[in-house]
Fold each of these.
Amino acid sequence: MKGFAMLGLNKVGWIEKDKPAIGPMDAMVKPLAVSPCTSDVHTVWEGAIGDRHNLILGHEAVAEVVEVGALVKDFKPGDKVIIPAITPYWETVECQMGYHQHSGGMLLGWQFSNVRDGVFSEYFQVIQADGNLALLPENVSVEEGVMLSDMVPTGFHGADNAEVAYGETVVVIGIGPVGLMAVAGSNLRGAARIFAVGSREICQNTSKLYGATDLINYKNGDVVTQIKDLTKGKLVDKVIIAGGTLEAFEWALKLVRPAGTISNINYLGSGEYIKLNRIDWGLGMGHIKIIGGLMPGGRKNMEYLSNLLKYGKLDVKPLLTHRLKGLSEIEKGLYLMKDKPRDLIKPVVTM
Ligand code: NDP
Ligand code: ZN
């Protein structure tokens, strides 16, 4: 089968591989729609998780089941399914601790395009299908469904980890597709005022659809000053970091109130250390929480998030700015994600 792979650091290309053999709990699927992710860009061009050779990329897909192992109970060939970016083994100690994202070790719930061939392929294997797949609701298109693989769960995880509550003021730094879903998640959790920090006009306009009340362009001057001017110096309840550089943590610490939360979902692909100003952090006694999280996968999470689309509580169509057709267009889609033209939010490739 054909797949689009990371050949090595800074190198991508098409390769041929044997179809993977599936185990008794697994499913073999073929993609119906996939989307390239900024994470693929960090992995290939920043070497953020180290070198990988001939590893098929991609972790966002809606697919059709073509074969299931003998122990799979709830899925059958022909089913249209959402593939979460995170597909762990569910029987580990880390899962029992509540963190399936790290099943088997740090970040190892993230299998596709990390430790296992990804979804940019004619076929791919999903381990533990009953735990990792979810049926795509009938009234949700395959393009919309792909946004449930990663963009919706990641953005919402940012808002969940920040424990955004009614009436709060939230700053979202970075409003690409992930940050936009952090805005939407904060809005659904009841935030009253949401500052959206980005520069692409299309992202700024879209952030308003998802509930942003104040737009900040980081290219127009110091972000902290711009926000504090608008709050008349008052600190905010929560900051979600979904883009930018390591400096975003310094801004966040200057913006968040005592006992507030800084919730990072950005994949920190480069740089060494994050600076925490001791005074901004309340001399170490400010009860300010800093948390960073990998998105949750799992069937339950996918089913509940897809309910939001099914019943019209969340519309992901505004994210889909570039629609491509055919497996071979994956390459173009990945370069769009790398080059980030000003009119891009997210590309999607249907087969
Ligand atoms: P994008 O590149 O589309 O968006 C990044 C955002 O950050 C844009 O709004 C961009 O603004 C803004 N930005 C860029 N530079 C700066 C800066 N110096 N200061 C402030 N803001 C800046 O990325 P995605 O939305 O696709 O992904 C965001 C991150 O989430 C990535 O690191 C990705 O790898 C990660 N990710 C994490 C996951 C997880 O499980 N935690 C899962 C999936 C993705 P501009 O308008 O100028 O472009
Ligand atoms: Zn992704």
Note: The mean pLDDT is 97.
Amino acid sequence: MNVTSVQTLALRWTAEEFLLLDQTLLPKQEVWLKIETRAQMVEAIKSLRVRGAPLIGVSACLFIAYRALKRPSLSELRQDALAVREARPTAVNLMNNIDQLLKHFNSHEELIEEALRIFTEDQTLCKNMSNYGAGLINDGDSILTHCNTGSLATAGAGTALGAIKKAHQQGKKIHVYVDETRPLLQGARLTTWELAKENIPFTLITDSMAAFLMKQGKISKAFVGCDRIAVNGDFANKIGTYSVAALCYLHKIPFYVVGPRTTVDPKCTHGDLIPIEERTSAEVIGFHSSLESVSWAPESTRVYNPSFDVTPNAYVTAWILDHKIITHENIGELCSQ
Ligand code: MRU
């Protein structure tokens, strides 16, 4: 593979530099961060400057490949890889992609080639999931989505949002209801930004409005992404996803989860075993970025801030993977490639 540069909406990689679009500043500012050190990469992942399960894994591998171009020892690069692997605990793509990369540490060239293959593979996985997912979207659908699952979360078009974009490209008249996605507002800040770029009609709602919209008949189906799928089909995704799934079940609305094979964890038999990231109280007490800082609860307020929840398999209509659609009839095939 003779690739010398790659670029997506969220990252740029060349022999000279590795840049990440700082997603904490979107949609107000588009600032590209130069990532040069292990500490900078770990910080970027932990702070959600780069985020979304597939993109965390892919960008971690591209960072190692960028470092490899500077020819440090392979053992130093291994330390980099192990450090970034631990940056966030829930999205298994990070561990899956880094473990895959570690199998190719025989030479600098080999690991660079493998990182680029992982990048290209994610683009292909997105394409395939988008095609499968779009097949389940009808002309006239209004679709609820949660968090951000598009090009800011993957190396390609996205998972759930990829399917939505594909349906729009196919000429289907759709409308997207975007959950704001408290506390870090990935829906309000990022999904709206992506949908506007694609000219896809959308309406932003607060997370707590979904039930009422369903009761009003405004939602025909829900599409979400995932951070880790267990063998029995339980899956972790951004906090609030479980509520969407339970509400869909109550209102008899199809609920689809879209994810690539890199999000499946064959070692995890059920959802209770998925490690759930807990984040700081500051994220719930207010909103803080380098552009603005506001608190609406007393600073001393006790907070519980799990960043993800686990949706039980019973609430899922179908799991849209990159190679097939899984339903309750063939759920045993979730882990087969
Ligand atoms: O904390 P984040 O923003 O990294 O969480 C992202 C999500 O939960 C997405 O829904 C998930 O990664 C699937 S994205 C393709």
Note: The longest strand covers residues 175-179.
